[in-house]
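I have been asked to look over a protein record a colleague put together. Alongside the sequence sits a line of tokens, each denoting a local backbone shape. Please read both lines and tell me whether the tokens look consistent with the sequence. I do not need a full report, just your reasoning and any doubts. I have pasted the whole thing underneath without changing anything.
>
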Amino acid sequence: MSIIEIILISIGLAMDAFGVSIGKGLTMPNGSNGKKIVLAALFGVFQFVMPLIGWAIGRQFIDIIAEFDHWIIFVLLGYLGISMIRESYNDESDEEVENNNLGFGEMMLLSVATSLDAMAVGLTFAFMDINVWFASGMLGIITFLISLIGIYMGRFMGQFVGRYAELIGGAVLILIGTKILMQHLGIMGEL
């Protein structure tokens, strides 16, 4: 997997956190810079750790499913992409995000919720020739930066952008999953 693909996956996976960050940025008071940075940092840390957990789980089964690993990657990334696209049209998640009370417990829950898809992607990393530490590090750093931007721009951007961010992120995951499948089936060469 190329560095560009890792960056695209990182951006795609960060879109959940970005959408939540925009929503939280809308409701967080101007003087709460510490909470804003902590929230973005937690999003980044969980996006770093969860792929490592998924990779460790996947490595246990690599011999069993190596013959059809490309189908697993395609299905997982496709499912995550479709879920993100579906969520971009869900009004209920917008209402949940607009709650003003943001304690550490809620930050942790939001971090876990927005990084579960990263664990599934980490599972796909187990079947690829990839440096999982580098890829997970990229996921964490990019998610932190994108989340921080989302939090600080939340008041200006509104929930409109958050909705489209998830839509675009989902489409990127689907396209990368399709590309990996096509390469493994011999329909498309390495880029």
Summary: The helical segments are 3-27, 33-59, 62-65, 69-88, 91-97, 104-125, 132-184.
